[in-house]
Amino acid sequence: MKNFVDQLGTSHSFESTPKRIVSLVPSQTELLYDLGLEDNIVGITKFCVHPFHFKSTKKIIGGTKNVHVEKIRLLQPDIIIANKEENTPEIVEQLAEICPVWVTNIITLEDNYQMIADFGQLFNKRTEAQKWMDKIRFAHLDFQNFIQDKPSYKVAYFIWANPYMVAGGDTFINEMLRLNKFVNIYENNPNCTGRYPEVEIKKIRLHGDPDLVLLSSEPFPFKDEHAFELGRFTHHAKTFFVDGEMFSWYGSRLVKAFAYFKKLHEKLI
User: Considering only CA atoms, which of 159, 140, 157, 177 is closest in space to residue 253?
Assistant: First the structure.
């Protein structure tokens, strides 16, 4: 019997290495694939779009917030991979009746390394996990050298419209903004509290008057009309449409994210 503890502090015991995996989080599905576990993944959500061919080769078990419990049960998984932010406690509790539910909690880079190391232990993929951690550390160090002489900008990172919502503090997105020397005006804003606060855009100048307004490609499909509307209420902010996967996906995606961030900064000049 092997014992492991997930990132919420929950203990899990397995008689052998889990073979049949259901993943409820897109970025973690990508990581499991990159660790060489394609044949072990039996179920994914409709939002698990990487790798692309999984949509036709894996069983779709619903979304991250509305999973189809009976479909998961029929897959007879040994383990279900969930996330504190993406999946509700009610979902985790319900699915725990089927098999162990491993819950991750990713806010910082160190949390991300811990998740990868945990998966390496859980699925007997230690060498592969170490390779990905080394790749991310190298890409991070390279990006730190790139960013050190770049200017800092005040930013507002929008994730939703109608109502408008932004990324606040205590989020992985905020961690990515910090790495880019982007000062999130909603990180510790007393007027707009919470991890993803709803904001009144007419007051954006009072909230911090950002230099940059970043419109994420997910989960909301922002259009030019939103950029124009937001621009009206800032003093001199430039608006950029950014790839939300690069700012919000953890796991192995970070290797690509650091390369993307370099290109983004070149556009800011």
Answer: 140
Pick from 233, 171, 218: nearest CA to 196 = 171
Lowest-confidence pick of 92-101, 110-119, 135-144, 226-235: 226-235
Instruction: Quote the CA–CA distance of 39 and 43 in Å, as a whole number.
Output: 11
Q: Which stretch of DSSP H or E encloses residue 126?
A: helix 126-147
Through-space distance between the first and last CA atoms of the chain, rounded to whole angstroms: 56
Where b means 16+ CB within 10 Å and e means fewer, 144-181 reads: eeebeeeeebebbbbbebeebbbbbbebbbbbbbebbe
Q: Say how far apart CA 15 and CA 229 lie, in whole Å.
A: 57
pTM over cut 0.85: yes
Tokens read off for 171? 């989020």
Task: Give the domains, in start order, of the chain with CATH numbers.
Answer: 2-139 (3.40.50.1980), 150-268 (3.40.50.1980)
Which residues are CB-contacts of 63 (< 8 A; sequence separation ≥ 6)?
A: 45, 46, 47
Please provide the average confidence, as pLDDT, over all residues in the chain: 97
Residue 62 to residue 12: CA distance in whole angstroms: 25
Tens-digit pLDDT profile for residues 109-142: 999 999 999 999 999 999 999 999 999 999 999 9
Report CA torsion sign: 190, 196, 198, 204. positive
Residue-wise pLDDT tens digits, 11-26: 999 999 999 999 999 9
- Residue 177 token pair: 């903004």
